[in-house]
Specification:
Blueprint (H helix, E strand, L loop, with lengths): L1 H20 L4 H14 L5 H21 L14 H9 L1 H4 L11 H21 L8 H26 L1
Helix pairs in contact: 1-4, 2-4, 3-4, 3-7, 6-7
Amino acid sequence: MWPTVRNLGVFQALWFLLVLEGDAFFVFALGWLLLHTVSFCRSGEWRLLAVFTLLGICMDSLLTALHVYQFSHSAWPIPLWLVGLWLIFPTTLLHGLRWCWSGQLWILIASGLGAALTYTGGARLGDLSFPFGELPTIFILTACWTLYFGLVRLMALQKS
């Protein structure tokens, strides 16, 4: 249980630092990714981390390009703090959130909604706005995140 608490606790602490303080804490995200990869990754997991990170950065870049959300400071394709979140989030997928991939399909949809709601929380705390409004954005993000989690599930189950 301690590894799960550590994994999710570090992620959550870094999430708050990155959302509240921005780019200045990118180096901490990079440091956690390196420590996680060296100390906690299972054999070959780093490949999945790279794929999950790239998928996430591409998803957020596309959603930004489509103006689903905007950042008050211009950054292309997404701000460095959001790249930092994508460096650390995949470290939870095969550790603290592993239980999501062995369950039923409704868990993926609920996870997609939960992930979408983190954007609304982040928008209230930081550098993010929703040009289409909050509710349409939540629907779009829930669909995107459910697809993302579905891909993660497929890859994670194929690996094990």
